[in-house]
UniProtKB/TrEMBL annotation:
Reactions catalysed, as given in the entry: a uridine in RNA = a pseudouridine in RNA
Pfam families tied to this protein: PseudoU_synth_2
InterPro entries: PsdUridine_synth_cat_dom_sf, PsdUridine_synth_RluA-like_CS, PsdUridine_synth_RsuA/RluA, RluA_PseudoU_synthase
CDD domains in the cross-refs: PseudoU_synth_RluA_like
Example GO molecular function: pseudouridine synthase activity
Organism encoding this protein: Lentilactobacillus farraginis DSM 18382 = JCM 14108
Residues of the Pseudouridine synthase RsuA/RluA-like domain: 95-245
Name by which UniProt lists this protein: RNA pseudouridylate synthase
Biological processes, Gene Ontology terms: enzyme-directed rRNA pseudouridine synthesis
Family (UniProt): Belongs to the pseudouridine synthase RluA family.
């Protein structure tokens, strides 16, 4: 198991003549406590030399960052390995991995000793290279599609901060009930806990937080619409609650759609756009449609042809 994580990179042109502290905190989104640890141990080098964080860096300067386990609260998470056969990898490099989560699989276990979640399958896959998976974000159990994990603790803070800063773009596909909604729209309704059902959330529920969802219509049929959806916030069940609130619930949603119009939730994490930590490149990944989407769409096409 690796016990230090070394990154060699260069100062981008946009950070020319900016303080090193600004590069680390504002551009690479490292938390202040982590910068303090790196600085205190002289584990930040610029052109192979120590540089005070208030000093400026310059375009194409060589920056070396060296992380150690004590930098992190949980450097080696205890994740039980399950079969890797169920895992479909969409993208992988030395620092992160994006997999195509199956509908019905949890993102992570809820009980000690539990297996069968996506992260358990990923732990088995990464065991061959003596690497652990690290949580970055989550998908609902019934939601399929692209989900991002880290392969070391050093990139987790930056990736989590990128999501919070809306630098990671997430696009979902959903079939919804009804075809009379506008071509595009924004839903801005706060979401909190449902005091009557601990499984659910509700608009203006207990401890409600701001929630914003953007959508546009890709396709309309008699009785249903296919939407592309982007989240500005990331509340639990946000897409499902927001679409139900405008009377266009996700098809097959067992919690928020009172009409049993499909056996499975038709919500899919379709595309992820992720800026690479400590680099100036962005990766774009698309998760292919899962079988239950294809079955539903085949049924729609069959109905259209027979009518």
């Amino acid at each position: 198991m690796q016990h230090n994580w070394l990154f060699n990179t260069t100062v981008p042109k946009s950070m020319d003549n900016q303080p090193l502290r600004y590069l680390l905190h504002q551009h690479w989104l490292l938390p202040k406590h982590l910068i303090f640890s790196l600085r205190s141990d002289n584990r930040i080098l610029v052109n192979q030399h120590y540089l005070p964080v208030n000093f400026p860096v310059h375009y194409q300067d060589q920056v070396t960052l060296s992380f150690i386990p004590t930098d992190f609260q949980h450097p080696f998470p205890n994740v039980l390995a399950d079969s890797a056969a169920a895992l479909a990898v969409l993208y992988e490099d030395a620092n992160l991995i994006i997999v195509n989560k199956r509908r019905g699989d949890k993102t992570h276990p809820n009980q000690p000793g539990e297996v069968g979640a996506t992260i358990n399958h990923l732990a088995a896959y990464l065991a061959a290279e003596d690497t652990l998976p690290y949580m970055v974000h989550r998908l609902d159990q019934e939601t399929s599609g692209a989900i991002l994990f880290a392969k070391n603790p050093a990139v987790v803070p930056s990736l989590v901060a990128e999501i919070a800063a809306k630098q990671v773009s997430r696009t979902y596909l959903a079939w919804v009930s009804g075809s009379d909604l506008p071509d595009q729209g924004t839903i801005d309704l706060p979401i909190g806990r449902d005091p009557q059902d601990k499984r659910k959330r509700r608009i203006n529920g207990r401890h409600a937080l701001k929630a914003i969802t953007h959508y546009h219509v890709l396709r309309r049929t008699v009785g249903n619409s296919l939407l592309a959806i982007q989240l500005e916030t990331g509340r639990t069940h946000q897409i499902r609650i927001h679409l139900a609130a405008i009377n266009h619930p996700v098809v097959g949603d067992p919690l928020y759609n009172p009409v049993h119009d499909a056996p499975f939730l038709l919500l899919h994490s379709w595309q992820l756009s992720v800026p690479m930590p400590f680099h100036e490149t962005t990766i774009n990944v698309t998760a292919p449609l899962p079988p239950h989407f294809k079955t539903f769409e085949a049924g729609i096409n069959s109905t259209r042809q027979s009518s």
